[in-house]
Design goal:
There is one protein chain. This protein folds into 2 domains: 1-76; 77-109, no CATH class. 7% of the residues are buried. The protein has helices spanning 3-36, 44-73, 88-93, 101-108. The longest helix has 34 residues, at 3-36. Helix content is 72%, strand content 0%. The mean pLDDT is 90.
Length: 109
């Protein structure tokens, strides 16, 4: 990599860190709101939906937190299975991606 490329990547990672941190804050507030919501409507469907929303929000927080950790430890953008670089285009669409597409497909079965 050249110095210009390194600088551009550092800037991109800094912007991404800011965006992910903001998303983490938003999702944390959402989780707090969902956790405090205790209205029992008597409808089992509502309880199931609420439970699913809690699980999804927790999962999102875990993924964002893991992506932030990878940025901090210098492994962001590297496939956790084959250790090749994950294409920037994939990371732009799915910033919390842990695997390149072929490894993700194998991971999903």
């Amino acid at each position: 990599m050249t110095i210009d490329t390194d600088t551009a990547r550092q800037r991109w990672l800094a912007d991404l860190r800011g965006s992910l941190t903001q998303d983490f804050t938003t999702q944390t507030a959402r989780l707090r709101e969902l956790s405090e919501l205790t209205a029992d409507t008597g409808d089992p469907g509502d309880a199931h939906t609420h439970s699913a929303m809690l699980a999804t929000t927790r999962n999102t927080l875990e993924q964002i937190g893991a992506a932030l950790k990878r940025i901090d430890d210098g492994t962001y953008g590297q496939c956790e299975k084959c250790e090749t670089a994950i294409p920037v285009e994939r990371l732009e669409v799915l910033p919390q991606a842990r695997f390149c597409v072929p490894c993700q497909q194998k991971h999903n079965g």
